[in-house]
Amino acid sequence: MAEKVLLIDDEKEFVEGLAERMELRGMNVTACTNPQEALDKVDAESFDAIVLDLQMPGIDGIEALKHIKKTRPEMQVILLSGHATVEKGIEAMKLGAMDFVEKPADINVLTDKIKKAQAKKMIIVEEKTGEKVKDILSHKGW
Which residues are within 8 A (CB) of 117 and not within 5 positions of it... i.e. 6 or more apart? Predict the structure, then answer.
């Protein structure tokens, strides 16, 4: 099954190039250069992995991560930055980011992390579904 990926970065040429390389590897990629537009997509659709730039004008990666984890905690976020600091990396991981990758990202490393994100999301969704089924069965008087 193709991984459904949302790629968020304000650098248009970088986003287009990375999206093309990911699509050549069989991924279903939605690319956004506007962080607010990307968050609207997060609210409306489900993605296996979100590759999110840390530094963007307006809404930065940390603020976007907070929004994503608050509204769609099952979605797995991989932060991407060319200006990574240890403090920002630690903050991102504490907020629920699955991983942190420095630019320029090795496409094979990023692809592997996206596949792991998809697997992790599937486990979370299966657990939630199991809990819902148990809850329904415990409240029905069959």
Answer: 3, 48, 49, 76, 78, 98, 99
Q: pLDDT at position 114, please? A: 96
Three-state secondary structure call for residue 101: strand
CB neighbourhood size of 80 (10 A): 25
What order of strands is seen across the sheet that includes strand 76-81? Answer: 28-32, 4-8, 49-53, 76-81, 99-102
Instruction: Classify residue 51 by its DSSP letter.
Output: E
Asked if residue 65 lies in contact with residue 52, where contact means CB atoms within 8 angstroms, the answer is: yes
User: In which residue ranges of the chain is pLDDT below 50?
Assistant: none
DSSP string, 123-138: HHHHHHHHHHHHHHHH
Q: Length of the chain, please?
A: 142
C-alpha span between 22 and 12 (Å, rounded): 15
